[in-house]
Each structure stands twice: as structure tokens, then as C-alpha cells.
Amino acid sequence: MELGLNEKVAIITGSSKGIGYYTAMQLVKEGVNVVLCARGEKQLQVAADYIKNETGKEVLIVPTDITKEKDCQRLIEQTITHYGRLDIVVNNAGTASANPFESVSSELWQADLDLKVFGAIHCTKYAIPHMRKVGGGAIVNVTAVMAKTPPASSLPTTVSRAAGLALTKAMSKDLGKDNIRVNAVCIGLIRSDQIEKKWKKEASQLSWEEYSQQVGQTIPLGRVGDTQEAANVITFLVSEAASYVTGTTVNIDGGAGHAL
């Protein structure tokens, strides 16, 4: 399948590791010029070096705190200065913060919304004019399956992630006329640093495959998802293969979600 991504330019937030990093690697392999951004410059450089070693292609790194609007604006400006265009934004940056309602401080509410909601808003806001100049673009907001069916003690994450879903749908309606597609992915149990640390601490005698199956017993596909599997779906959504897909949400959860 031809994805039509060669020579396009993509920004991926939170791309020094995890889903963001794997998505960056996959897009580079498809011929995309990629901008990595996260707060830590050292980890960004490590990620950039890995990508170059694997693909032979250099990426641009821009240390960015997306909770600050001026940083988001600078991220877009440096991308345009370096590559001259912008086609794709993957709003991936975020952390898991799950607590009972009464234990969440006002400061934690604000920090979570600044990172997961306003970070996406500001990055997208400054990207849109440049997407219009090249005739369109693709935006993917990375959220969580729990946003659709929030369990107890899941705050503030589920609220900010649910806001991301509403943002996705509303933006898709506004930007469709500009050929800018906006979609979201809802992440379930995917291999991460946190899960790997738990595996090595609690069940190091098991192989990853054995541990994945043990942890994933309640998941219809019977295992923890691989990070690459999430990256593959995001790559499809930003590609020309998904040219008639906008305003939708794709669960990457092995069938675990309870909502349509």
C-alpha cells in the first residue's frame, strides 16, 4: 500500500521515547522529515541517534515544554525554518495521573490540562496556517481508552483525555474545508517503560511474552500491545491511505474497551 508520505514534514510531541519515538521511527522509514520534541534535550538526542543509526536519516530535535504556549509557537517556527513546510502533527505528549477525585489538587488539575489539552491546542493552533499553505494536513491526538468509560480513581487523566476526544471531533468539523484531517487514537495497555519496570521487578523469571499474556488475561487478544502496533495505526491515520478518515477515534487496546 502506498502511504503517500515521502518528503512530508511531521512534528511529534513527547517523542523521545515510547509511542512518540516509535511513531517517529516509522514515519522516517516512510520518507517523512520528522521533528522530535520533548522537554529533555539529552533523551531527545539519544532518540535522534537511534533513528539515524537505524535509517541513516537525521531528524530535527527541538526541546519543548508544550505546557508553555511560547514554546509551542517556537516549535512550529523552528520546524518551518528548517524544513520549509509542515504537514503532520501528532499530539502525543502526556503522562498518566490517576487518583480519586477528592485527592486531586487544583495544581494537579491545571498541570494535567496544560499538558494534555492546552499543549495540543497550542501546537495545533500554530501549525494550521502552514498546513493550509501546502493544501492540507493531518493531526492525530493521542488519548486513552479510559476517556470513553472513566473508572473510579482515574482523575485527572480521564477528564483531560476526554477533552482531547471532544477537541478532535470539533476540530475535524472546522478544518475539513481546508483538507486538514483530525483523528484520535485511544491507547489501552501498551508496552511502556512503566510496564517493563513492573515486569522486571515483579516477574523477572518470566519472558516478556509470558508476562504480557499473564497481564493481558482480561484483554480479548490476550496480551499487552506492542508499542510498534500503536505507531503503525498512527502512521496510517496521517497517511494518504486514510485520506477520507477524519473526526474519528481508533481504539488501540486489543479489544479491551467497553465503548463503541
UniProtKB/TrEMBL annotation:
<comment type="similarity">
    <text>Belongs to the short-chain dehydrogenases/reductases (SDR) family.</text>
</comment>
<protein>
    <submittedName>
        <fullName>Short-chain dehydrogenase</fullName>
    </submittedName>
</protein>
<dbReference type="InterPro" id="IPR036291">
    <property type="entry name" value="NAD(P)-bd_dom_sf"/>
</dbReference>
<dbReference type="InterPro" id="IPR050259">
    <property type="entry name" value="SDR"/>
</dbReference>
<dbReference type="Pfam" id="PF13561">
    <property type="entry name" value="adh_short_C2"/>
</dbReference>
<dbReference type="InterPro" id="IPR002347">
    <property type="entry name" value="SDR_fam"/>
</dbReference>
